[in-house]
Design goal:
With 283 residues, the chain is α/β, with parallel strands linked by helices. The protein has two domains: 173 residues, Aminopeptidase; 92 residues, no CATH class. It is built from five helices and 14 strands. The strands form two sheets. It has a ten-stranded mixed sheet. Strands 9-10-11-14 form a four-stranded antiparallel sheet, with no helix packed on it. A hairpin with a 2-residue loop joins β10 and β11. 46% of the residues are buried.
Length: 283
């Protein structure tokens, strides 16, 4: 793990990249910040977490670091030990964790819940949505206080790196590390979704996804296919982190639109809540 500090004093703000070794956008953003000539108002800690996995270009060496928290100094796996070390390093900090995905090209934020920290940071970032992970945060860094995780774009893409660089700077302005006006250039309202359930992926060899993330899926709509056999929604929902090959055992998640950061309630009938089953039956 590489740890650098900008500014004088004990940092209360941290940016973490490289949780996954196949997501170089975060480490690239860290290097960009280190190369810049900033007038630092508050000290900030910059971390590249899983250097070994990054060097090999793999997601992880022995277990997924973002499922290994809190870790243990005597864990059997590299990532288990690293999770403990990383938590110790960022304790007491306001944290931004940079990631990329196979599911969606535009940046979006994930939080455990829409608490005061999330509300103080997310409106000032150039993201299209915020997702509450709630019951799906176990083992992840966002299960801990004052963490916002950003999906910066498509994995290994140049666009994801450029997005990560911009988002990191916006975060530093929002947290007072850098001077400047806060503002993402995105028009409010910022939609807030909540993960409700996983969409299982049956065993197969060839997978397809037919729906777009964050766009409402109607009842009985074809959402995906496994070896040419289509799967259909049982109730309306919003796809989140859906991709053909991003996860081993699920396509992604069904979610609800639960509100907006301007305080308005979503204009979606209650009967169309995605908290109802959306497990992708076939027919």
């Amino acid at each position: 793990m590489r740890v650098e500090t900008l500014g004088d004093g004990d940092p209360e703000v941290a940016i973490v990249g490289g949780i996954h070794g196949d997501e170089p956008c975060g480490p690239n953003a860290v290097d960009d910040l280190l190369d810049a000539d900033f007038d630092i108002q508050r000290p900030v800690k910059l971390i590249v977490a899983n250097e070994e996995a990054l060097e090999e270009g793999v997601r992880y060496l022995e277990e997924d670091l973002n499922r290994a928290f809190p870790g243990d100094p005597d864990a059997d796996t590299h990532e288990g030990r690293l999770a403990h070390e990383l938590l110790r390093e960022i304790r007491g900090c306001d944290i931004l964790s940079l990631h990329s995905t196979q599911s969606y090209a535009a940046p979006f934020a994930l939080v455990d819940e829409m608490d005061g920290y999330a509300r103080s940071v997310c409106p000032y970032l150039s993201v299209e949505a915020v997702v509450e992970t709630a019951g799906y945060s176990t083992g992840r860094l966002i299960a801990y206080p004052n963490v916002v995780e950003l999906e910066c774009g498509i994995q290994r893409s140049a666009a994801a790196t450029e997005n990560a660089k911009q988002l990191a700077r916006e975060f530093l302005v929002a947290t007072g590390v850098l001077s400047g006006e806060t503002g993402s250039g995105r028009h409010h309202p910022l939609p807030v979704f909540r993960l409700e359930r996983q969409i299982p992926k049956p065993v197969g060899e060839r997978y397809e996804v037919f729906v777009e993330n964050f766009e409402r899926v109607a009842e009985d709509e074809a959402i995906a296919a496994v070896d040419g056999e289509e799967l259909f929604s049982e109730t309306p929902f919003y796809p989140i982190l859906l991709s053909a090959y991003g996860y081993e055992n699920e396509f992604g998640y069904a979610g609800d639109l639960i509100g907006r950061l301007d305080g308005d309630e979503p204009a979606v009938p209650a009967r169309e809540s995605a908290s109802a089953r959306a497990d992708g039956r076939n027919r």
